[in-house]
Amino acid sequence: MSQKQGRARDSAIDDRVLAVAARHLSRYGYAAMSLSAVAEEAGTTRQALYRRWPGKADLAAAVIATLEDEEDRDSPATDPFTALVAELADFQRGVSMPGRLSLVGTMLQDTTDPDVRARYRARVVAPRRARLLAVLETARRLGRIDAEADLEVALTMCTGSWYGRELAGAPLPPRWPERTAALVWRALGGRVPADRHDAAGDA
Q1: Of 130, 60, 124, which Cα lies nearest the Cα of 94?
Q2: Mean pLDDT per 10-residue segment, the chain (203 residues)
Q3: Is the Cα dihedral 162, 166, 169, 173 positive or negative?
Q4: Quick one: DSSP state of residue 69?
Q5: What CA–CA distances, in Å, run from 115 to 26, 37, 97, 128, 183?
Q6: What angle do CA 49, 50, 51 make, to 5 degrees?
Q7: Burial label, 101 (beta-carbon count in 10 A; 0-12, 13-18, 19+)
Q8: Which of 53, 66, 87, 134 could, after both became Cys, cross-link 58 (CB 3.0–4.6 A)?
Q9: For 28-33, which contacts have Cβ atoms below 8 Å and span 24 or more sequence positions?
Q10: φ, ψ of residue 79 in degrees (nearest 5)
């Protein structure tokens, strides 16, 4: 006798729940995010939500798993400086998405589930740092920056300047990716390509 098949999972419900959960996670933080409130706003039941994600940590992890998928990257540039500018421009687009900066703050809170925080670092932070490091290592290998350049500190400078500006409440500088890339490049002993001086401004 054939077994009775269950109902097919409704991907539309999944998408609605994840979108609502992302907003709540960014707005209220992990500790205050309510699964009941998420289910109600998404137009489903708490039971249906639990069938998909057994707990809050599972739902938050599912939200994080969608973050990198939202970013639309161009093919990597062959010139290291151009690649650095492109990577920083991509970072700016991602962190400027609605609620994304608040989500970064949520991941720094002690009340956020450690596994959720670890997943965020592995899914979002680590890949970005790996791509930036690969660009800087290529530049060093090609002799575009000093052989003894401190890439560990430079790596943090690349994106850290954005968060420092946000914490200070400072306006976004024009051409932030180009100017930041030029500043980091020069700090590492490199010379900004002649055709990029205008774009990089006086940074």
Answers
A1: 124
A2: 49 88 87 91 91 90 75 62 95 87 87 91 91 96 95 95 92 94 96 69 46
A3: positive
A4: G
A5: 17, 22, 24, 19, 35
A6: 90
A7: middle
A8: 53
A9: 29/105, 29/106, 29/109, 29/111, 29/112, 30/56, 30/60, 30/106, 30/109, 30/111, 30/112, 30/113, 30/116, 31/109, 31/111, 31/112, 33/60
A10: -80, 130
In single-letter form, the type of residue at position 131 comes to R
Residue 16 token pair = 């609605």
First to last CA, the chain: 74
Which amino acid is present at 101?
L
**191: CB partners within 8 A, 6+ apart:** 144, 185
